């Protein structure tokens, strides 16, 4: 099977591997391509870290043609996708308008906020390239293309939601985001708005928390 791998520095390479290869051996191959040591390397698939080196590629559900992210440090992404932001100092206004309504009522403004947040967080962009390649490509194309694609995807989600029941989100993800200082109801609303995509939901929550003007003047 053939896998495509990318790094945070935009290095892209392919490997021909056996689906029964253990992850620790996959790391060894990646080390030759990236000069990242096996000890400090983490590999992600669909936003999840492949933490058990003894498991095989197939046991993680990886298929021929899939893309993986190789990172050069012990990952904190799954615990804090915004490693340079002190969430303890952020106050999220309790009456903040949720992103689903914002995208419907003022899609351009909300999309710009998300775009700027992603632009300052390369780790999030790297994850986006795996989870939502079309939106990542639009991000590379600039703000106007990003706005167009994000609006199209949101409309498609809205249309899809009309024909299916709401799905529940993993409690572990909800608690993780609540632990960053966000209100539980806001977290669930954002996850609903972005079809369970934790990274986009966090980008929107953070963008909203710094974009709402203060009333204390």
TrEMBL record:
Q: Name one Pfam family in it.
A: Ddi2_HDD
Skewed-composition ranges (Basic and acidic residues): 154-163
- UniProt organism field: Blomia tropicalis
Ranked from the top, the taxonomy reads: Eukaryota, Metazoa, Ecdysozoa, Arthropoda, Chelicerata
Protein name per UniProt: Uncharacterized protein
* PROSITE patterns according to UniProt: UBA, UBIQUITIN_2
Would the keyword Iron-sulfur be found if you checked this record's keyword annotation? no
Which residues belong to any copy of the UBA domain?
168-208
**Residues covered by the Ubiquitin-like domain:** 1-70
